């Protein structure tokens, strides 16, 4: 009986040592950026492990200013299907930790309002989205503020508020799953969904 207990303890200790020795280590320090790769690695090189940067809570006092993604190009006139109606409404993008509408966003909203004016029976839902930084609760509230800012702008342009609903997804529906500024800029957006 003692041999069985001693044997189990030895196996458990060995398992703990192996598991502790195989812990994932970051290849890049959080404050450094990994160098971008422009050419394929030689066949003899070992594949790099995926690194993750820990999430830090974001507050309204964050002084970082980051670029906004360029707005989508203007599309052709609508066709008949719901998908075609959906394609006429363009996304808008936001700066980091902001629900303020940029000039580009206001121009896109003006075009969206013109389209909605020509489709008086069309109802839409504005979906506010955020990048992955910040807590879940904070990002849900920020996504709602972004959707409300777009709705208020459309209402000021003459679109009935009864035709517009809002919904926040926070960070739950990223367009780009990356963990860098290029991905985050694409994820800070409002989408316009036709609900008829």
TrEMBL record:
Compositional bias annotation for Polar residues: 49-62
SUPFAM superfamilies in the cross-refs: OmpA-like (SSF103088)
Main subcellular localisation: membrane
Cited InterPro entries: Bact_OuterMem_StrucFunc (IPR050330), OMP_bac (IPR006664), OmpA-like (IPR006665), OmpA-like_sf (IPR036737), Pal (IPR039001), Pal_lipo_C (IPR014169)
Topology of this chain in the membrane: Lipid-anchor
One Pfam family per UniProt: OmpA
Compartments where located: Cell outer membrane
Residues of the OmpA-like domain: 81-196
Keywords: Cell cycle, Cell division, Cell outer membrane, Lipoprotein, Membrane, Palmitate, Signal
Domain of life: Bacteria
Sequence segments annotated as region (Disordered): 31-67
Family assignment from sequence similarity: Belongs to the Pal lipoprotein family.
Name of the protein: Peptidoglycan-associated lipoprotein
Record organism: Geomonas anaerohicana
